[in-house]
Write a structure and sequence with these properties.
By secondary structure, the protein is of the alpha/beta class. It has helices at residues 13-24, 36-48, 67-78, 94-99, 101-129, 150-170, 202-215, 226-235, 238-241, and strands at 4-8, 28-33, 53-58, 83-86, 132-137, 175-182, 219-222. Strand 2, helix 2 and strand 3 form a beta-alpha-beta unit.
């Protein structure tokens, strides 16, 4: 029987690479995104790569009142659900957020609250089903607040703590909750940032997410070297950390 996978934010570079791995397994895929053109292109490619069936659903994930409707449509299409990947988000302008309450609230809505809304609905399904995997793309930015992106980091920090609690709740039901913490990845979302030696390509990151979901991991840093890097950054005393330009 083919695996049933719901991917939210499916046209993002990282989610697309993960979906390619599931397509090669002959999975049934339900893709959610806000761009008709991108979803159509991704769906067509995944069919060629081996996906048994690909359905799409157009949705701006900040429309919280449509989350239930979307999930019901996904279940109606797939019949059941084995895997969920949530991978949407934005990397907003920190300076604009500092000057605007509206900008700050929008970043929190997109990168945290919209995901918590989805998880609140879908976690109940998995808990009753008593098997499956939920994976969510968070970020290393949530491991410590830095002046260069603390609004984005705060959203990801809150999301990671929510996932930690959800993992604790669902573990007794046999459901895996995987927190994905990528570092810098060369995607359209980070195109405005200067690339450095630690910048990763989306292909290995997507593959890493796929493998983490299949194995039911807890917290995964991608690429792997971000785990020791963030351990060091978290260990820096606050008095010294304030003087760093990070």
């Amino acid at each position: 029987m083919s695996m049933k996978v719901l991917i939210i934010g499916a046209s993002s570079a990282i989610a697309y690479e993960t979906a390619k791995c599931f397509a090669r397994d002959g999975a049934d895929l339900f893709l959610v995104g806000r761009s008709t053109e991108k979803l159509t292109t991704v769906a067509a490619d995944l069919k060629v790569r081996g996906a048994k069936r690909v359905e799409t659903y157009l949705l701006d994930l900040c429309e919280l009142d449509r989350h239930q409707e979307m999930f019901e449509q996904a279940l109606a299409s797939l019949g059941e659900l084995d895997m969920l990947l949530i991978a949407h988000g934005t990397l907003g302008d920190q300076h604009k957020c500092e000057q605007s309450v509206a900008e700050t609230m929008q970043e929190l809505q997109t990168n945290c609250l919209s995901i918590i809304s989805l998880l609140t609905i879908i976690a109940n399904y998995f808990e009753q089903q008593r098997h499956g995997c939920i994976a969510v793309v968070s970020s290393v930015a949530g491991d410590r607040g830095r002046k260069s992106n603390y609004v984005y980091g705060a959203a990801k920090a809150a999301l990671s703590i929510f996932l930690q609690g959800l993992r604790n709740r669902l573990s007794s039901a046999g459901v895996s909750v995987v927190t994905i913490k990528p570092g810098y990845v060369a995607t359209p979302m980070t195109a405005h940032l200067k690339k450095g030696p630690l910048t990763a390509n989306p292909q290995p990151v997507g593959r890493g997410i796929y493998e983490a979901m299949k194995k039911g991991k807890d917290v995964v840093y991608l690429p792997w070297f971000w785990r020791p890097i963030m351990f060091v950054i978290r260990s820096i005393p606050e008095g010294f950390f304030k003087r760093l330009s990070l």
